[in-house]
């Protein structure tokens, strides 16, 4: 079990300081408690406590009797309960238990009204809140609720409708306080604001604390406010009069962060620290304060006022062990503010005790140390149990393995191998021949072998292939001798489901609970090993469920495992939201990469295509020598290359081409162009001479 160490200064002695320890389980329970006493709802005194606990499928609301410590009723719901408050059904004249209601503010934004007498939810108020309802409070027939976005809603309990809605704009609100006349409400997050309900106007504002406020209480007939915040060692008293100042009237100091606060009608203040110590101030939250000191003459240091009285509870078995006080409240009966109701023990079965803080002079005792027995078995009888509980405990049959035998094949194989080893073993011969001991033989099977040594590689591989019967003997030996290396070798087979099942099935029942405790310690120390440890935990709880349910002290021994699972589940929602954001970012990155790759591909394809001319223009030979007949439009290239001259000089052109080709077939491009030009001129002259000869022939015929 993980220990948390808190340094506390000794009041006497020469050693100076001493370490006082308390388990982290008790500290975690004190931090997570969502509870409310029924003072004023059922009677003038506190008779019941509404306590919210985490369950497997959701939160559970338990109604516990303050006088006997027994559970009266329980409500299990799937929704998360953020706040609770006691009240009465509308129109109920008396304060009987039949008319009592418990309002539950849910994470979903709804408010449920639970009747302990009927053990059922009688009404659900919904539609007004969107965020989680962090605070609820009854005032007469009305119910006030506050969500985390700073919206205050006044409900009509009889009709189940919202009468008034006021938006304070206070983000992260976590505390609500309603005046007796229901005309003023105080809302707090890090700072504190006082509002007029009918006009929806803010009357005053205080700077508050550096952390979220978890407690707001009236003092001095609603002329002062008392506040406490998370991780804050100071309790502030504020002036709530119309001409109030923005600074606190008094600052009360403690040795550890304050977990709960209560105020008496006379102005006395109680505060319980996370170290389990109760601090008390006598009549400090009064309506008027003198310039030098408070009404009680409390001592003031450089930071604030120290406590007038301190109450500690220590164990009778170990005087150095501190038993933490979880809650404290001024009793509404008896001698008034001098009588205090304290809650200690645990949330599974809290212990209630009433004590007096006043000394002979009427002031609080400076230091009060109570010697109490530590809370042990939660299910067996004790001196505080009633007659009915004692009779029920007497009827319980204690589980016994006497006369029972295991007939499963794995256990039979283990016993057979043990009998065979006993028959072949001769201790005297082994001592004479120097036969290796059991520890040496286990090391040869790679149990506890050094994995970094290459020489042990083959032995380690052989160890991973150990049978279930061998692993059972190794597991029993490791638990019996508290050998962590041997146990780690057994746990390394978590990837073999059949071997895990057969090994756990053959484990003797006397070693089941020690094995679970070893698994829980490793699970708390290294949560990253969950994939290796959870198969063993699952099989052990499933295969030995009958034996585990017969153990009376099972609940406190499994409390650490339950809290570890709850802590992992609390971060599951945040991890899912983070995973969604990362997936959205990855999607955008992938889409951007695909777009850029497609754009580059299109650019490369466009550059690889051949360039084709849209039009080709040829320059004329000589525009000055050309006659009027030569002003024809230029012939296209493709038509010029394929066309032939039908005039008389065509034959002469062919001759010129033949001569040019006969002279030099492999001429250069320049000679070809020159010959082509000469051929063109020759053909033109030939055409002219041919036309003249034709004209002379025609004239001779005439």
Tags for this entry?
single chain, 702 residues, alpha+beta, five-stranded mixed β-sheet, 16 helices, 25% strand, disordered N terminus
Describe the protein's topology.
Layout: E1 3-9, E2 17-23, H1 24-32, E3 34-37, E4 48-54, E5 59-65, E6 71-76, E7 81-88, E8 100-106, E9 111-115, E10 120-125, E11 133-139, E12 142-147, E13 151-156, E14 161-167, E15 175-178, E16 184-188, E17 192-196, E18 201-206, E19 213-219, E20 224-229, E21 234-239, E22 250-253, E23 258-263, E24 269-273, E25 278-281, E26 309-315, E27 325-330, E28 339-344, E29 351-356, E30 367-372, H2 387-395, H3 409-424, H4 427-433, H5 438-444, H6 457-463, H7 468-481, H8 484-491, H9 497-505, H10 512-525, H11 530-543, H12 545-549, H13 554-608, H14 637-642, H15 650-663, H16 669-701
Parallel strand pairs: 26-30
Antiparallel strand pairs: 1-2, 3-4, 4-5, 5-6, 7-8, 8-9, 9-10, 11-12, 12-13, 13-14, 15-16, 16-17, 17-18, 19-20, 20-21, 21-22, 23-24, 24-25, 25-26, 27-28, 28-29
Helix pairs in contact: 3-7, 7-8, 7-9, 9-11, 10-11, 10-13, 15-16
Explain what this protein looks like in three dimensions.
The protein has about 700 residues and is of the alpha+beta class. The strands form 8 sheets. It has a 5-stranded mixed beta sheet with strand order 23-24-25-26-30, with no helix packed on it. It has a 4-stranded antiparallel beta sheet with strand order 3-4-5-6, with no helix packed on it. The protein has 16 helices and 30 strands. The chain is about 30% helix and about 25% strand. Helix 7 (about 470-480) packs antiparallel against helix 8 (about 485-490), helix 7 (about 470-480) packs across helix 9 (about 495-505) and helix 15 runs antiparallel to helix 16. The model is unreliable at about 1-30, about 290-295, about 380-385, about 445-465 and about 640-700 (pLDDT under 50).
């Amino acid at each position: 079990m993980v220990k948390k160490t808190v340094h506390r200064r000794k009041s006497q002695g020469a050693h100076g300081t001493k370490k006082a320890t308390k388990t982290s389980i008790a500290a975690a329970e004190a931090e997570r408690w969502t509870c409310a006493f029924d003072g004023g709802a059922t009677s003038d005194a506190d008779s019941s406590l509404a306590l919210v606990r985490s369950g497997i499928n959701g939160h559970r609301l338990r109604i516990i009797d303050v006088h006997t410590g027994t559970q009266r009723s329980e409500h299990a719901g799937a929704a998360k309960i953020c706040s609770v408050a006691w009240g009465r059904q509308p129109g109920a004249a008396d304060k009987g238990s039949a008319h009592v209601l418990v309002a539950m503010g849910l994470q979903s934004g709804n408010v449920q009204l639970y009747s302990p007498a009927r053990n059922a939810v009688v009404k659900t108020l919904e539609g007004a809140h969107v965020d989680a309802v962090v605070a609820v409070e009854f005032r007469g027939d009305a119910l006030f609720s506050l969500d985390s976005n700073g919206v205050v809603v006044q409900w009509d309990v009889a009709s189940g409708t919202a009468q008034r809605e006021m938006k304070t704009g206070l983000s992260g609100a976590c505390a609500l306080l309603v005046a007796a006349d229901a005309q003023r409400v105080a809302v707090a997050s890090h700072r504190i604001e006082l509002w007029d309900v009918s006009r929806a106007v803010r009357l005053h504002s205080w700077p508050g604390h550096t952390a979220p406020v978890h407690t707001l209480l009236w003092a001095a007939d609603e002329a002062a406010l008392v506040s406490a915040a998370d991780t804050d060692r100071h309790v502030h008293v504020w002036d709530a009069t119309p001409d109030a100042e923005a600074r606190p009237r008094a600052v009360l100091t403690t040795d550890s962060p304050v977990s709960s606060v209560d105020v008496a009608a006379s102005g006395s203040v109680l505060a319980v620290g996370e170290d389990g110590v109760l601090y008390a101030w006598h009549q400090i939250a009064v309506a008027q304060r003198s310039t030098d000191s408070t009404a009680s003459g409390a001592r003031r240091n450089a930071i604030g006022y120290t406590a007038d009285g301190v109450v500690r509870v220590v164990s009778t078995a170990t005087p150095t062990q501190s038993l933490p006080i979880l809650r404290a409240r001024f009793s509404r009966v008896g001698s008034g503010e001098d009588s205090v109701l304290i809650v200690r023990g645990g949330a599974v079965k809290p212990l209630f005790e009433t004590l007096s803080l006043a000394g002979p002079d009427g002031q609080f005792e400076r230091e009060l140390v109570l010697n109490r027995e530590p809370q042990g078995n939660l299910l067996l009888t004790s001196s505080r149990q009633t007659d009915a509980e004692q009779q029920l405990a007497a009827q319980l049959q204690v589980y016994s393995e006497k006369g029972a035998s295991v007939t499963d094949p794995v256990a039979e194989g283990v016993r057979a191998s043990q009998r065979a080893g006993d028959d072949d073993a001769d201790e005297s011969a082994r001592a004479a021949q120097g036969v290796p001991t059991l520890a040496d033989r286990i090391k040869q099977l790679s149990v506890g072998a050094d994995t970094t040594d290459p020489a042990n590689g083959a032995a380690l591989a052989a160890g991973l292939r150990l049978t279930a019967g061998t692993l059972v003997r190794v597991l029993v030996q490791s638990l019996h001798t508290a050998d962590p290396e041997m146990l780690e070798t057994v746990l390394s087979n978590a990837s073999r489901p059949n071997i895990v099942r057969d090994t756990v099935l053959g484990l003797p029942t006397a070693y089941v609970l020690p094995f679970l405790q070893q698994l829980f310690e490793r699970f708390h120390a290294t949560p990253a090993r969950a994939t290796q440890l959870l198969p063993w935990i699952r099989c052990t709880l499933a295969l030995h469920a009958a034996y585990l349910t017969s153990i009376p002290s099972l609940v406190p021994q499994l409390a650490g495992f339950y809290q570890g699972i709850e802590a992992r589940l609390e971060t599951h929602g945040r991890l899912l939201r983070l995973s969604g954001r990362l997936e959205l970012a990855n999607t955008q990155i992938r889409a951007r990469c695909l777009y850029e790759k497609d754009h580059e591909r299109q650019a490369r394809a466009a550059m690889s295509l051949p360039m084709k001319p849209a039009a080709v223009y040829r320059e004329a030979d000589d525009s000055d020598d050309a006659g009027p007949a030569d002003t024809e439009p230029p012939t296209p290239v493709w038509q010029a290359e394929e066309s032939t001259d039908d005039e008389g000089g065509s034959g002469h052109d062919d001759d010129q081409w033949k001569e040019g080709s006969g002279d030099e077939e492999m001429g250069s491009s320049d000679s070809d162009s020159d010959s082509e030009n000469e051929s063109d001129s020759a053909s033109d002259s030939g055409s002219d001479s041919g036309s003249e000869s034709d004209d002379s022939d025609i004239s001779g015929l005439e």
